Amino acid sequence: MFLRSIAAVGVVALLGAAPHVHAATFSYAATNSTGFSAAQLAAGDFSFTDADLELGGGVAVSDLREALGPTAPEMRAEAQSLHGINRVLASSNMAVISEEDRATGIGGPFSMAVSIWADTFTITGGTGTGTVSLSAGVSGQFGNGYGAEGLYALAAASEAEAGEILDDPVGAVLGDALPSPILLVHQSTTAPQYMADGERVAPGSAFGRTVIGTYEFTYDQPFVLVSMLAGFAHDFGSLSAMQSAVFGLTVTGNAAAVIETGSGVAYPLAAVPEPETYALFLAGLGLLGVAARRARA
């Protein structure tokens, strides 16, 4: 449901010029007091009750009070993007109005937050190709109600692809502009009777985990990494991930390598897998070895 739900982000992104791809940040927070039907989504005929777009590391906030009364906010969304860190918060304190919209479009009222950063990396001090280890410490907390989702994705992209992502971040994810993610976390606390993408977890669960991957690069040739964290909440769901998606990278096998970035940020080293992760990996290799011996026999 989440990827379908945030397809509207790109429309509001046009409110500001796309940041320069070499080093860019994009934060978007939006709330809606009703919801969007499937027909509205198909026609692109929708608008948010309140929305805020911030570039350059600013904090985007939507705190929906006026449409729902002057009391404590019923809908809240918040996002911040810094190079190496994505932060989002989305919460809802109202039940979905239309069950049909929930099933076929975007059940509302709802809140959503999107945090994106992109940076260019050039690695020197070697020849030919090399490998970087990449990690993201994705962490947060789901509330005790059903109806929240969180998505983190890190992908390598060309400058053209990165530009499309920043112009229309969710449209790029749904289309062909975003390459397969190197790192991915997607979890939801959607009510059991509704379909959900990604991993379904119980309300009140912790969100995220540390994800680790690798990427092959060519020395002296720049490449672009794009990091996105998004949160969505309706019904009485919430997701707080304001200290989340902390990124790191390490050049493997070359202590003399130098990493230059378009932003000038010196990113921390990639996380190292926990010992139990290695144990599981080795156990898996052992099982594969047993299976291979049995197959030969």
Strand and helix layout:
Elements: H1 2-5, H2 9-13, E1 23-32, E2 35-36, H3 38-43, E3 50-55, E4 59-64, E5 75-82, E6 85-92, H4 99-104, E7 106-107, E8 110-124, E9 129-137, E10 140-142, E11 148-157, H5 159-167, H6 169-174, E12 183-188, E13 199-200, E14 206-207, E15 210-218, E16 223-234, E17 238-241, E18 246-252, E19 258-261, H7 275-296
Parallel strand pairs: 12-13
Antiparallel strand pairs: 1-3, 1-8, 2-7, 4-5, 5-6, 6-17, 8-16, 8-19, 9-15, 9-18, 10-14, 10-17, 11-12, 11-16
Structural account:
With 297 residues, the protein is of the alpha+beta class. It has one domain. The protein contains 7 helices and 19 strands. It has helices at residues 2-5, 9-13, 38-43, 99-104, 159-167, 169-174, 275-296; strands at 23-32, 35-36, 50-55, 59-64, 75-82, 85-92, 106-107, 110-124, 129-137, 140-142, 148-157, 183-188, 199-200, 206-207, 210-218, 223-234, 238-241, 246-252, 258-261. The strands form 4 sheets. Strands 1, 3, 8, 11, 12, 13, 16 and 19 form an 8-stranded mixed beta sheet that branches. A 6-stranded antiparallel beta sheet has the order 4-5-6-17-10-14, with no helix packed on it. A hairpin with a 2-residue loop joins strand 5 (75-82) and strand 6 (85-92). The longest helix has 22 residues, at 275-296.
